[in-house]
Amino acid sequence: MQNRLLFSAFFLLALLLFSFANRPIQTPEQLGERLFSDPILSLDSTISCASCHIPEFAFCDTALFSRGVGGRLGKRNSPSITNMGARPHFFYDGRAATLEQQVLMPIQDTLEMRATLALVTERLQNHKEYDAAFHQLYGVSANAEKLAEVLAAFVRTLETSDTPFDRWMNGKPNPMGEAAVRGREVFMKKGKCFDCHFSPDFTGDEFRNVGLFTGRRNLADRGRFDVTHDSTDLGKFKVPGLRNVALTAPYMHNGMFQTLEDVIEFYDVPNQTVPGGINRDTLLNTPLGLSVEEKADLKSFLEALTDDRFRR
């Protein structure tokens, strides 16, 4: 009986994957989704965008650092790519100004997909289905500009707003519970989270230094400074949005915290967890003094930011 059940499960999964792979491509978003999951964009066709941005985990990676072609290890934790439509810059250091710029960079990165745009566009032109799709949508063969356009179009479909928090805000059924409501109060006031994580996506799209640069070992990433070469940007990183944050561990640009509890403890007494942070934002100079209950409530609020599409 157990073997039959396992066979049925594998058969159903194979059927679903076959159905997805053979679904007609009618829009840029559909083409972008197909290519997002296709390893054809990597040098040796072994990894795809979805390898490091896993759909089940709000399109982030569960590993400390993702592995690219040949097992090469990346330098920063792969973040979620949900709710990117309104962002003014991309990557932790903000080196891309548009989604169209951003989506092509991992393809060419030697630690990630390690391909060239010439190589992948040639492959797409020689791929019967993809070539037909680009011609149908744009009247031309695949090229770097159109590849960027369809991948960005797919990423823009990953907006999420069907959460217990959103239902609470809009007075709809099944809102967040009492603990999360109390946690929101901590988030807005005593926890000072709202000072950096505001707007509908819970980010001000700023660059902040939270004290995770000491110049030593795994805390030597200079962040925004490597883009601007401005000394005031040393150790600054883009403030991430917090939607679906309960699914996106490990946390921070270096993945140093495994749980939301770890993150909350860090912000409660920053200098105790990571002493000696250089150029740390003055907002973190004073301990928050959160109680055990306030920390638990704050975690409940963060969990209430998970979209229903990702709830297990």
Q: Mean of residue pLDDT?
A: 93
Taken from the alpha-carbon principal axes, the silhouette is globular
Main sheet properties: 2 strands, antiparallel
Number of domains: 2
List keywords for this structure.
2 strands, mainly alpha, Cytochrome Bc1 Complex, Chain D, domain 2, 2 domains, 13 helices, 39% helix, two-stranded antiparallel sheet, 312 residues
Compile the SSE list and pairings.
Elements: H1 2-21, H2 28-36, H3 49-52, H4 99-108, H5 117-126, H6 128-138, H7 144-155, H8 164-169, H9 178-188, E1 207-208, H10 225-228, E2 237-238, H11 260-268, H12 270-273, H13 292-303
Antiparallel strand pairs: 1-2
Helix pairs in contact: 2-7, 4-7, 9-13, 11-13
In short, what is this structure?
The protein has 312 residues and is mainly α. 39% of the residues lie in helices and 1% in strands.
